[in-house]
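debug: dumping io for the single-chain case to check the tokenizer round-trip. Nothing else runs in this session.
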Amino acid sequence: MNANDFSRRHLINLPNILTYLRMAIIPVIIFVLMVPVSTKSFNIAFLLFVLASITDYLDGILARSWNLVTSIGKLLDPLADKLLTSAVLIMLIPVDRVPAWLVFLIIGREITITGLRSIAASQGLIIKASRMGKNKMISQTIAISLLLLTIPHLQSLLHNLGLFFLWVSVVLSYWSATEYFVNFYKEAKRHSRQAR
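debug: decoded output
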């Protein structure tokens, strides 16, 4: 990043504003899901999560189509995604919608890959997001939406579908994590050869 990355134009453009909005929604969802929770609070959290997910979809499209891709956007967008999904999954543990150990697997993977990408970036290596990682994000979004949505006579079906998609996201996340490590190894090896 350079000084230009922190100019008003780069910090305050529509894609980044949508990312800031997504981050601002996180504490609201946490507050809504604080126990004791009701059908109404689950459904409010569902609507907020869907709204936040839509901003995630829109900010990427707008950034690319309007040529507003910025370094700060590249940093904040995946960070906002990880904070949003992690916060909601953690809040779903005490209300028995997801097991704590499964949430640990998901968040542990995210921390590991974020660390790997940071190490790569510090060495001048860029590890691009994989298609599998994007599919993981889609299945995770569907899973969390289903786990939040509360319709009493359909609750068992929604819960089971939510857990199914969450497991799909776990499989895809560890598959994509393997790809990240392989790509990191290849990039590091290529970088090492060029340095010599």
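debug: round-trip ok. Residues 155-195 form the longest helix (41 residues).
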